[in-house]
Structures are given as C-alpha cells and as structure tokens.
Design a protein that fits this description.
Number of strands: 0
Number of domains: 1
CATH superfamily: Hemerythrin-like
Order of helices and strands: HHHH
CATH class: Mainly Alpha
Shape: elongated
Oligomer: single chain
Length: 141
C-alpha cells in the first residue's frame, strides 16, 4: 500500500489534497489486486482518471499561468510531463479496451502509476509548490 508521507507534500493545500486522493485510488487498486478483483477496480480507476487529470493538471497549469509573470521557469517541462502522462494513460486505456485486463496488465499499470506519480511529485511538483509558496504564501499550509 502507498502511504502518504510529509516528504511527498508540495506544501500547497489544493495540490496535496488532490495527490492524496489519487494515492487513495491507487491503494484501492492495490487492494483489489491482492483480492483478485482488479479487473473491475482498474476500470473504476480509469474512469476516475478521466476527470482527475483534467482537474488536477488543469489546477497546476492554472497556477503556472497565473503566476507566470513571477518567473516560474519550469512550466514548459511541467506541462510536457502532464502531456506525456495523458498520452501514456491513453495507451494503457487502449490496451484495456482491446482485451479483458489480466493480472499482469493491472500489476504493470499500478507499478507504472506509482513510479510516475512519486517521481513527478518529488522532482516536478515540489518545485512548483516551493515557487507558489514563495510568490503567494497563503496557498501553503
């Protein structure tokens, strides 16, 4: 199971809350894998991701655009990572729609999601969080 720890916090309430929500969804998938009920849960997760990426990435990109005048220098890279994630999700979704999900497919997807998201938080989102707290401290905790 994934455990949300303080070192994953970017220090911006809205972003951290959204990250925790995704961690909870991934944990539901991991539990379903353990219970051999992953086929239904992965479909639920993909349905959730359809709205999550629009909302979460949109909120982060809104912050980047809103405070661009203050010089957030990593916006292009950050947005590119979001686009890459969406593209990868589309590829996984196409595989899911082509055939019933195998345990291997679900496990590989879960590993990919966990690795991508933790790396993204630690190496990209934390930079955005630090920038936002500096420019607009009320966003932080």
């Amino acid at each position: 199971m994934l455990v949300w720890t303080k070192d994953l916090s970017v220090g911006v309430v809205e972003i951290d809350d959204q990250h925790r929500e995704l961690f909870g969804r991934i944990n539901r998938l991991l539990k379903a894998i353990d219970e051999n009920a992953a086929a239904d849960e992965i479909r639920t997760l993909f349905k959730f991701l359809e709205t999550y990426v629009v909302k979460h990435f949109g909120d982060e990109q809104r912050y980047m655009d809103q405070y661009e005048m203050y010089g957030y220098s990593d916006a292009a890279r950050h947005k590119s990572e979001h686009a890459s994630f969406i593209s990868s999700i589309g590829e996984f979704r196409a595989d899911l729609e082509a055939a019933p999900p195998s345990q291997q497919f679900v496990t590989e997807f879960a590993k990919w999601m966990i690795n991508w998201y933790i790396m993204h938080i630690q190496h990209i989102d934390k930079g955005l969080g630090a920038f936002l707290r500096k420019v607009f401290p009320v966003l932080g905790r």
